[in-house]
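re: ur question from yesterday

yeah so i grabbed the chain u mentioned. its 159 aa long if i counted rite. heres the sequnce exactly as i have it in my notes:
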Amino acid sequence: MNINEFIFSRTQPQKKIDTINALTEGELLSIREETVKRIVKDAGRRIWKTRDKRLRISQERRAGNAWNSSIDEVQLIKGKLHLEVYLQYENTDTSTSEEYDEFFRNGNYRGEVRRLDRYGNGRTYYFMYNPSDKASVMKSILLEYVFTKYAAKLTQQAA
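ran it thru and got these structure tokens back, copy pasting raw so excuse formatting
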């Protein structure tokens, strides 16, 4: 089964959710960039008076590296995908935008944020994502798409 085609097929939403939850790490990491672009186009909301779109990942489906960061949303800006990363460090937090294709390359991803500490000195803060963390991020994107796109059908099935 090709998940890149299955996610857009005419299948019951609950079956899609079960299939996404059963995917292996390798299958999740093999999802193409075009698939994620279509997901953001279909289920995302417009970013203020532009053609750009964003798909916010809800709190219960948000995934990260289980250390200091999580992925908040996927943005499609001028045809390029970006991931909005929420990062906690020391006694504060911030958000940064990372390019999708760099983030999902093979191997580990190490991002960095440069901020001033409380004394005004420049510091660099890092966050790491290994392939299993990336797979959980991809799973959260897919699940958010299904829950957003088919919200009405899922509530009908639950009732």
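noticed a couple things. The mean pLDDT is 92. also The radius of gyration is 17 Å.
anyway ttyl
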